[in-house]
Design a protein that fits this description.
Layout lengths: L2 E5 L2 E3 L5 E8 L7 E7 L6 E6 L6 E3 L7 E6 L4 E6 L8 E8 L2 H6 L4 E2 L3 E5 L2
Parallel strand pairs: 2-11
Antiparallel strand pairs: 1-3, 3-8, 4-5, 4-9, 5-6, 7-8, 9-10, 9-11
Amino acid sequence: EVQLMESGGGMVQPGGSLRLSCAASGFTFSDYHMTWLRQSPGKGPEWVVTIYQYGDKTAYADTVKGRFTISRGNAKNTLSLQMNNLKPEDTALYYCASASTYARLLTGDYDYGGQGTQVTVSS
């Protein structure tokens, strides 16, 4: 059974930090490009950051560039997102998703996705 399980969310004050994790199982993690997305109430999914299958390339949304850092551990099938200098507009449900091909990555047609972990940034 394929599973992507996110953890690490919570409530934090503006300027604070959180580290999200995504544990993958049931598929060959190293074969997939991995992405973090987020969704706020009343809005559609927003792409946040992608790390390619070997971890040698990353791409960030302008809204998080310089504040968020994605990493992956292919040996342990884990994906992480270090979020620093959080802002209220970062408040959202964050979830990880996997894409087996560049085409799926570019079109957002992910193979698998998790249920998400809530991040709330508020004073």
